[in-house]
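User: Need the bound-state model for inosine-5'-diphosphate:
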Amino acid sequence: MSNIEKTLSIIKPDAVERNLENEIKKIFIDNGFKIIKSKKIKIEKSEAEKFYKVHETKPFYNDLCSYLSSGPIIVMMIEKANAVLDNRELMGATNPKEAKDGTIRKKFGISIDKNSVHGSDSLENAKIEIDFFFKD
Ligand code: IDP
Ligand code: MG
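Assistant: Bound-state model below.
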């Protein structure tokens, strides 16, 4: 039984700015992920608002959308067995201060808002988020 999944990962502006793209990609590859698609883009705030619509009632929504659109990001479609959960595990907790050793956010995250990576939180959202960035 194969349960190969695809999920969406984003290297956020704080990490792109620190030139961590290759180092973070190596972590994915070393952990069994294939990077199927990858592109460096800069999005408008209105696009960030659409992407993060699920958080629109949160107090941090405006800052979050300003932040994601503040500089270049790398969006990636990555693949492996159990990709969605395994990516969440590899990313670590939302707040880097709470992230476990060996996770990307523990290693590179600066703060709860500048936490270096995004990852889809369910298979359903992975499909939606992959379409958001890669639908032609
Ligand atoms: P996740 O990225 O671990 O899935 P979410 O709860 O989906 O976390 O929140 C989306 C993003 O919003 C987080 O990655 C983080 O950048 C930001 N965020 C979440 N909670 C807070 C907060 O309490 N203050 C400021 N920013 C937050
Ligand atoms: Mg989330």
